[in-house]
Design a protein that fits this description.
By secondary structure, this protein is α/β, with parallel strands linked by helices. It folds into 2 domains: 9-30 and 256-350, Alpha-Beta Complex (Aspartate Aminotransferase, domain 1); 39-255, Type I PLP-dependent aspartate aminotransferase-like (Major domain) (Aspartate Aminotransferase, domain 2). It has 13 helices and 13 strands. It has helices spanning 9-16, 39-45, 59-68, 82-88, 107-115, 133-138, 161-170, 207-210, 224-231, 241-253, 255-277, 301-309, 336-350; strands at 24-25, 76-79, 98-102, 119-123, 145-149, 175-179, 200-205, 218-221, 282-284, 291-296, 313-314, 316-317, 328-332. Strands 2-8-7-6-5-3-4 form a 7-stranded mixed sheet, with helices on both faces. A hairpin with a 6-residue loop joins strand 9 and strand 10. Helix 3 runs parallel beside helix 10 (241-253) and helix 4 (82-88) packs across helix 5 (107-115).
């Protein structure tokens, strides 16, 4: 099984003989503001706690998540990143097939392959890669598992929560997995609530908005009845103790940081996108997230990525996404100085 992701900065630095700090990573779709203030100290103070077992089901963490997200603890499970649940869900019931709204995160398809579940692609189209819910609904037969990332990676397109909730209720025989990993970068409300339809599972990631992918912490939320069934098959100690401590701190203290990230994006993203749109041969795909998908007609993304690496800048070649080709690449907002370095380098290559 081959895994292709952005943000592979450790391996890239090693291949180039550089230190990680020497690279500007525009390929990783994480918060541009770095670690949440205070988190480092929490981890340092909690280091001795790796000497004993973590809480088996992360009950304290799930209770905090529920309080923070207006649902009940019985509706929540914590895992080793949302990837834990992405790979578990296709194997949990005798689905007839899966439907994946592409282009999107490749692990949905890999998880279905791993579970032996056949899947079909509902492919979104250039130029905006918007989701036509009526057309998507027409492909549903009942009995399938549907994966939708909202906002979507890598396109950045967002389906309004109200529209998505209505659509899910209109198709009760289809089980929906909605990945909200990037929703905290927007002001759109979550599908998570106390009363959720029985055919809905929501994935919530801590990695992206808090910039902690190395800790591996994610949540799965559904109806209390669904989660009672899921807990019969859950693994103990799926969240390590440091990740539990980090999650408890972030759920208690992280909201001001989230607002800071949203404010940073509001101030930085428009000018960044405008600068990209002015470059020759470049089309910017409309989106709402911390990352931006671009289509380049003057050179392939692999060639462009290689040229950018000579400037010690990483971008994400998107040819590995179903529905995209080598003309597409993705970049993520970083702090203002890094964004300027990137734009100067890209401008020099494309002019």
């Amino acid at each position: 099984m081959t895994f292709v992701h952005g943000g592979n900065i450790i391996a890239t630095a090693g291949q180039l003989g550089l230190q990680v700090a020497e690279l500007i990573d525009m390929s990783s779709n994480l918060s541009p503001l770095g670690m949440v203030p205070g988190l480092r100290q929490v981890l340092i103070q909690g280091l001795d706690q790796i000497g004993y077992l973590p809480e088996a089901t992360s009950a304290a963490l799930c209770t905090l998540f529920a309080a923070h997200n207006n649902c009940r603890p019985q509706q929540v499970m914590a895992g080793n990143g949302t990837t834990d649940f992405i790979y578990d869900l296709p194997a949990m019931a005798p689905f007839t097939r899966a439907v994946i709204v592409n282009p999107t995160y490749s692990d949905y398809g890999l998880a279905c392959d791993y579970a032996g579940l056949p899947w079909q692609s509902f492919t979104l189209q250039f130029p905006d890669f918007g989701v036509d819910l009526a057309a998507l609904g027409a492909t549903l037969e009942g009995g399938e598992l549907l994966f939708l990332c909202n906002p979507n990676n890598p396109t950045g397109h967002l389906v309004a929560t109200s529209e998505l909730r209505t659509f899910i209720r209109a198709h009760p025989q289809t089980t929906f997995v909605i990945d909200e990993s990037y929703l905290p970068f927007t002001h759109e409300p979550s599908l998570v609530r106390e009363e959720m339809p029985e055919n809905l599972f929501v994935l919530c990631s801590s990695s992206k908005i808090y910039g902690i992918p190395g800790l591996r912490l994610g949540f799965l939320v559904s109806s209390a009845g669904n989660m009672t069934v899921r807990r019969r098959h859950c693994r103990p100690w799926s969240v390590n103790r440091l990740a539990q401590l980090a999650g408890e701190f972030l759920l208690g203290q992280g909201e001001p940081y989230v607002r800071q990230v949203q404010a940073f994006m509001a101030g930085e993203r428009p000018a960044f996108v405008e600068a990209l749109q002015e470059l020759p041969g470049l089309t910017v795909i409309p989106g709402v997230t911390n990352f931006i998908l671009c289509r380049c007609t003057t050179m392939g993304a692999a060639q462009l990525a290689a040229k950018m690496l000579t400037e010690k800048i990483m971008i994400r070649n998107c040819a590995s996404f179903d529905g995209l080709d080598d003309s597409y690449f993705r970049v993520s907002l970083q702090k203002a100085a890094a964004n300027r370095v990137f734009l100067d380098a890209l401008t020099s290559l494309l002019h």
